Amino acid sequence: MRHNKHMRFLHSTARFIAALAIVFLPLAANAQISIITGSWSSHSAVASAAAALTSSAVVQALPMPVLFGVAPSDLTPNFGDPRDGGRTHEGEDIMAVKGTPIVSPTAGVVLRTEVGDSEGNAVYVAAPGGYTYVFMHLDHFGEGVVAGTQLQPGSLIGYVGDTGDAAGGPAHLHFEVHDTSDTPIDPMPFLTAEFTPAQKIQFLTTILGETSDPTALSQFLVSNFRGYFLADESSGIALPAQITAALSTSSANSAASTASVTSGDLAMGAKGDGVVALQQFLIAKASGPAGVALAGAGATGNLGSMTEAALIEYQKAAGIAASGTYDAATQKLVDAGAGASIVATTLRPAATSSAAISSSATNTASASAAQNTLSLTRDLERGMTGSDVLALQVFLNTHGFTVAASGDGSLGHETDYFGPATTAAVAKYQAAHAIAPAVGYVGPLTRASLATAA
């Protein structure tokens, strides 16, 4: 995504404190920027909090700021990825369900909130050790979050969205870490921890007490993360009353969904978002070498031998029949402790590999002998299948835009399914060729670029 060039300040404790007085006050004329109000009503309080943060140690292991649905193992490194105009990506894009709460991973102080064409709704936070955290593309700001707000671990920042130049693409949190010289550095080495389930529920309880419509937020969260709350409940964690009520009203629908799953609903050759969810779960569990291997390949959306092996490994570790299919017994276990239920997908024939490319592929795609160009006769997007998808994966892998490092989608093992891994690879290609928005959809602009690529 495109992002505006940010201010460079906070070089030392003195500059950090001075910035609060010198930088914020002139911004009052800008209606799009929130100025120091609320919890910081005096300059002495500002100076005290700033000095305390600057003198404390940098937090090396940051808990995931997206409260539900994302673990560190779900992340795909994208800091430094090429962007139009010769720029590089200055943060980590964390894909998540739109509307999911985002919380502060550490103590902090809100420096400012902004609404920009590029960053969308953004919050800048002074963090321990003189670092700065930036949260972009928020759907909306957290209730009461303004410049000067003092934050504790778990304090609400806002909600996952697609504002700014993320509009039209997948919802996500663009998260930046700036060092003491205000230079963006790779967030991935820091995003290695998670809040405990009990902490998350504690934070959520506070959020529900602050939001203007706790019932609507509870219903949204239960509809997307019902499994998380059931697991917490079974572990003896007291849930907020609004979540308990939402679970009660959704139980009938959930039971019907569970009853509809039969053995073989997700087996070798299945494709789609259901497979993506299963793969993300297995990667998060990583109960052995097969799970670790799947983590290296990522969630491609195609259930091949690597996913089957990881599923068997998980089933053995859980003490259920190691069938290698996502059957009713496995779904019951996953729903009890995985988070959002995995949605079953219709079985499809086994994915076509790159070794099976034949002349029939010319109906929808053709490539030069040297694979320097690719001609497509239709637009492509996530969820589609076909020989042209396979040809697209081959082109991307052979031009430095890797679909997968190993397993399905990797070089020599391309498939005919357009899943999230292909979407990410296309987005990288688009960013490198100044095609906006770089969201992974292969439309007329991208097709024209592929047809003339050098």
Q: Can you put this structure into words, describing what you see?
A:
- The protein has 454 residues and is α+β, with helices and mostly antiparallel strands.
- The protein has 4 domains: 13-185, Glucose Permease (Domain IIA), CATH 2.70.70; 197-258, no CATH class; 273-337, no CATH class; 354-452, Muramoyl-pentapeptide Carboxypeptidase, domain 1, CATH 1.10.101.10.
- It has helices at residues 13-22, 43-55, 197-210, 214-234, 241-259, 273-285, 289-297, 305-318, 328-337, 387-397, 420-432, 444-452, and strands at 92-95, 101-103, 108-116, 120-126, 132-138, 140-141, 150-151, 156-159, 172-178, 184-185, 365-367, 374-376.
- A hairpin with a 5-residue loop joins strand 9 and strand 10 (184-185).
- The longest helix is centred in the middle third of the chain and has 21 residues, at 214-234.
What gross morphology would you assign?
globular
Question: What is the CATH architecture assignment of the largest domain?
Answer: Distorted Sandwich
Instruction: Sketch the topology as an H/E string, one letter per element.
Output: HHEEEEEEEEEEHHHHHHHEEHHH
Average residue pLDDT: 77
DSSP strand content: 5-15%
Compute the separation of the termini in Å: 24 Å
Low-confidence stretches: 4-42, 252-264, 343-364
Number of domains: 4
Query: CATH superfamily membership of the largest domain, which one?
Result: Glucose Permease (Domain IIA)
The CATH class designation of the largest domain is Mainly Beta
CATH fold assignment of the largest domain: Glucose Permease (Domain IIA)
Determine Rg (CA atoms, Å): 23 Å
Sketch the major β-sheet.
7 strands, antiparallel
Number of strands: 12
- Class per helix and strand makeup: alpha+beta
**Helix content percent band:** 25-40%
In DSSP terms (H or I, runs of 4 or more residues), the helix count works out at: 12
